[in-house]
Design goal:
About 45% of the residues lie in helices and about 15% in strands. The chain is of the alpha/beta class. β7, α6 and β8 form a beta-alpha-beta unit. Pyridoxal-5'-phosphate binds next to α2, β7 and α6.
């Protein structure tokens, strides 16, 4: 089920490229004008699979301000699915509140729980013959296939002369689907770039292990060597700070630098990742860096149109914002 507008643009960020080093960006913030970011590519396969199996309802899981829940609400709803969302508390920021309100405005049925530990039980209660359960972040072989294809898209842009071949690609590692798909896709497309996966979720070793098992599964499906695909991805957990969603000094600083160059970044995912980009540039270890941007830059106003105000949220939903 195609959703997005491809290929997404690529361009250099000359103001951030120190002498002798180039920084390029792949603009997956622009995958869709209604709501962009990396969840769009993953949902294409997931919504197709749900439809092929005759499902009418999606069960999705995420933190209160989850981009995956919001994307599922926006695109799943438009594709005719009901969307049940199991929601876990998250530190309150304006961005998180807007995302939650937008998801509600897009018609999710919210099922707030107290912690990640309570998720399996809530999901079990929502299963049924009409339900298609999508794991956290949409990260499974079907979702990741969108990023195997995205690496091919990048290879085509390189072949067409839109950008030179990068030596390193830096991307956020949240639930693993994006990085895993890219690692396999780079191998399949014969690109030589190393993939630097900046971990923003905890515990980092578990997230890395999940991403690696996803690489193996995706590699088998794509017919490439799992070992070679595994060797592509280097996980870096040094930018995580106190944990998922916790603001960091370096993330906030990277958000400021990114904004000056015209990139809107966030505290949870892309700010930390961009801090790693800036450090990679500073170290001059590689000549050409491509930052794969994964945060939607679409204005939220249209999605907030029908959304409830924060002060009107019922108690259990307000309790999600800590
Ligand atoms: C979900 C998300 C990620 C992480 O992608 P995964 O495939 O879950 O690793 C990165 N950036 C943004 C903005 C996201 O919403």
């Amino acid at each position: 089920m195609p959703l997005g507008a491809y290929p997404t643009p690529v361009h250099e960020l000359p103001s951030l490229s120190p002498r002798g080093v180039e920084l390029w960006v792949k603009r997956d913030d622009l995958t869709h004008p209604l709501y962009g970011g990396n969840k769009v590519r993953k949902l294409e396969g997931l919504l197709s699979a749900a439809r092929e199996r005759g499902k009418r309802r999606l069960v999705v899981i995420g933190a209160a301000g989850s981009h995956h829940v919001l994307a599922s609400a926006a695109f799943g709803g438009r594709a005719g699915f009901g969307v049940d969302a199991v929601l876990v508390p998250q530190r309150r920021t304006d961005h998180v509140v807007e995302n939650l309100r937008s998801s509600l405005g897009q018609g999710i049925r919210p099922f707030p729980v107290r912690s990640w530990g309570a998720v399996p039980r809530a999901v079990a209660s929502l299963r049924g013959p009409d339900a298609y359960v999508i794991m956290t972040g949409g990260s499974n072989v079907v979702g990741s296939a969108g990023y195997v294809a995205a690496a091919r898209e990048l290879a085509d842009q390189i072949a067409a002369g839109e950008l030179p071949e990068p030596d390193a690609i830096v991307v956020t590692l949240g639930s693993g689907g994006t990085a895993a798909g890219l690692a396999v896709g780079l191998e399949a497309a014969g690109l030589r770039a190393e993939l630097l996966a900046v971990c923003v979720s905890d515990p980092a070793p578990a997230i890395d292990a999940i991403a690696r098992s996803l690489i193996v599964a995706c590699a088998r499906r794509a017919g490439v060597s799992p070992l070679r695909a595994l060797s592509r991805m280097h996980t870096d957990a040094r930018y995580l700070g106190a944990g998922y969603g916790a603001a960091t000094e370096w993330g906030s600083e990277a958000m400021r630098v990114g904004a000056e160059a015209g990139l809107v970044l966030d505290e949870v995912y892309t700010g930390k990742t961009f801090a790693a980009v800036l450090e990679t540039l500073r170290a001059r270890a590689v000549r050409r860096v491509l930052y794969w941007h994964t945060l939607s830059s679409a204005p939220l106003e249209p999605l907030l149109n029908q959304a409830p105000k924060e002060e009107d949220l019922p108690g259990p939903l307000r309790a999600l914002l800590r």
